[in-house]
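Researcher: Let's do a round of design. I'm pasting the structure tokens now; please hold your answer until I've finished.
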């Protein structure tokens, strides 16, 4: 996992609070907008009501002056009935010029009930809206004009509460919309809070190793991320050297008890240890203050003593627990990943010793390691692929009985800065880098060029190595041919070499799935070879599990073939078994003439090794 800066961690941790604040601001803002909309709608309704009353008054005032002058009550009623269309108008009053009431109408359910010669007072100079003592009503006065003279007045009295139901509906709509908004915000906050609690629980679980209660790899990298360290430390990677033997001899329960006891044992010896982290299995990281190599060396020695005394806490474990330790100084501004890489390389060196040892990645160690090609980064490999620094060398496979080269094995090489880097220092990272399709295409191009060249030279067989798990990722036989150049090389058989020593642990010992995968992607132009047979954990059962065409016997089995009777007997039996199974045997690592002759006598005529030819650029063997 990529290290995050403390500032980035702080920002990430504050995000929930920031989001909650933003939601509150949005909620308040939207609520204010909704309420403002309600107020504007209510005011618009009131304004529309008053405007309707004024327009009705003007309309009637234009029609009734002659009827007022003549005292024609019938005509007045007919024109006053126009106010029926304005529900807010509750009373109509018509006055003569002298202020006497001529005709008044009071609204009933569907019409107006009129009365004559009513008693009321009107100001002769009134015009427009008039204040009333009753706040629930308002009135509008319009003069009655005829021939440029005022002959009377019309007063309309309206119900101010008439638009209230509509305004109430607007307010209820505002309440409903606001409630829905805050319900939504509440649901979002509730879901976010639940998710945050879950994230916090997950964070705590990720940060803590369940067995030891100390930091996990995740917690360690988070706490000591670049930019967050306030002082210099000594960083130590610790491995229980003989943990596998302890597990096998005493069982995994005892092994777990020892792992759980490591932190307390360390803290008793290294009292200033700042943190302990279990990185994986029996691998631990210990952080303690250290500003120079002498302090780091002293802390490393104390760690070894702590590990060496663990067996006393487990009486059933008779042999001392041995540890290997790689240490480095970790400065405030140092890059954590680089220092971890250096400490890991020092740990590897300590593991090579048969006894407990502390190796510090000081300047001398780093200089020596860099000369050996260590600390190569994936970035360098990517740049090398893009710059064309990688190429395939080939090593001949010879049929000694016919004195004929029958094929070649393709071996990836890296030429950088006029230096040929050995595969051991880059191959593992190279295999990871080419999982990226953008990088893998460069390898496919190299294979296609080599396969085409081999076919052009009449080479019958060309072998390529592949990781075991990558076979399962190839979707089809056509893709296999394209990836290894079989599509551009007529007459060439592409042999895919797999090695049991390269089986990842997570795949386990059962590779029966490989047989099915190979059936799916194989074709007449492709063959399968089992490489490194005879090294480490070779299993004859693989010959039954896999439909292989070639068995490549490792150098370990043939190194003493010219003088060791047991080696000859074993190889003779393997060759005989393979003959029965129609599997061709290729002996690898042939370096001497005596070995080549002994193998030939045993029926192993296909051979490969320095005696028959070194790995060389393709142009050394092919035109």
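Researcher: That's everything. Go ahead.
Model: Designed sequence:
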């Amino acid at each position: 996992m990529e290290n995050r800066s403390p500032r980035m961690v702080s920002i990430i941790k504050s995000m929930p609070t920031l989001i909650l604040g933003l939601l509150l601001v949005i909620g308040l803002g939207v609520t204010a907008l909704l309420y403002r909309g309600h107020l504007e709608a209510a005011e618009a309704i009131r304004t529309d009501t008053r405007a309707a009353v004024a327009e009705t008054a003007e309309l009637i005032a234009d029609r009734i002056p002659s009827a007022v002058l003549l005292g024609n009550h019938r005509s007045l009623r007919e024109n006053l009935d126009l106010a029926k269309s304005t529900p807010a108008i509750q009373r109509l009053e018509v006055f003569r010029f002298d202020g006497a009431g001529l005709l008044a109408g009071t609204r009933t359910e569907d019409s107006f009930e009129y009365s004559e010669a009513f008693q009321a007072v009107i100001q002769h100079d009134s015009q427009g809206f008039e204040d009333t003592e009753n706040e629930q009503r308002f009135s509008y006065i319009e003069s009655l004009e005829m021939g440029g003279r005022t002959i009377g007045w019309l007063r309309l009295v309206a119900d101010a509460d008439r638009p209230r139901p509509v305004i109430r509906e607007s307010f209820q709509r505002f309440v409903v919309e606001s409630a829905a908004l805050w319900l939504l915000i509440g649901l979002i906050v509730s879901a976010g809070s639940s998710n945050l609690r879950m994230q916090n629980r997950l964070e705590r679980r990720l940060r803590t190793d369940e067995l030891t209660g100390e930091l996990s790899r995740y917690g360690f990298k988070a706490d000591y991320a670049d930019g967050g360290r306030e002082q210099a430390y000594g960083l130590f990677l610790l491995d229980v050297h003989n943990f596998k033997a302890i597990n096998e001899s005493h069982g995994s329960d005892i092994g777990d008890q020892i792992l759980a006891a490591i932190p307390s044992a360390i803290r008793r010896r290294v009292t200033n240890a700042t943190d302990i982290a279990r990185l994986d299995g029996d691998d631990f990281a210990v952080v303690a203050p250290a500003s120079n190599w002498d302090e780091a060396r002293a802390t490393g020695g104390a760690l070894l003593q702590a590990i060496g005394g663990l067996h006393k806490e487990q009486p059933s474990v008779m042999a001392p627990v041995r540890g290997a330790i790689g240490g480095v100084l970790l400065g405030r501004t140092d890059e954590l990943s680089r220092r971890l890489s250096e400490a890991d390389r020092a740990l590897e060196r300590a593991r090579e010793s048969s006894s407990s040892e502390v190796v510090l990645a000081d300047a001398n160690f780093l200089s020596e390691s860099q000369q050996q090609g260590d600390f190569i980064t994936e970035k360098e490999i990517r740049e090398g692929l893009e710059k064309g620094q990688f190429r395939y060398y080939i090593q001949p496979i010879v049929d000694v009985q016919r004195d004929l080269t029958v094929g070649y094995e393709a071996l990836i090489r890296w030429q950088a800065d006029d230096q040929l880097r050995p595969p051991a220092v880059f191959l593992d990272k190279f295999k990871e880098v080419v999982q990226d399709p953008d990088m893998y295409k460069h390898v496919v191009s190299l294979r296609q060029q080599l396969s085409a060249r081999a076919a052009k030279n009449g080479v019958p067989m060309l072998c390529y190595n592949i990781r075991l798990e990558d076979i399962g990722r190839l979707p089809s036989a056509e893709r296999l041919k394209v990836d290894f150049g079989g599509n551009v090389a007529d007459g060439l058989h592409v042999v895919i070499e797999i090695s049991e020593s390269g089986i990842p642990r997570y795949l386990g010992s059962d590779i029966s799935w490989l047989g099915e995968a190979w059936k799916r992607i194989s074709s007449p132009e492709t063959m399968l070879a089992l490489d490194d047979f005879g090294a480490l954990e070779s299993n004859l059962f693989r010959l039954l599990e896999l439909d292989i065409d070639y068995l490549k016997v490792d150098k370990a089995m043939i190194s003493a073939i010219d003088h060791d009777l047991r080696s000859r007997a074993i190889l003779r039996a393997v060759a005989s078994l393979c003959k029965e199974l129609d599997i061709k045997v290729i002996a690898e690592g042939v370096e001497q003439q005596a070995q080549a002759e002994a193998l030939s006598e045993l029926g192993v005529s296909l051979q490969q090794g320095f005696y028959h030819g070194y790995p060389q650029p393709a142009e050394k063997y092919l035109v």
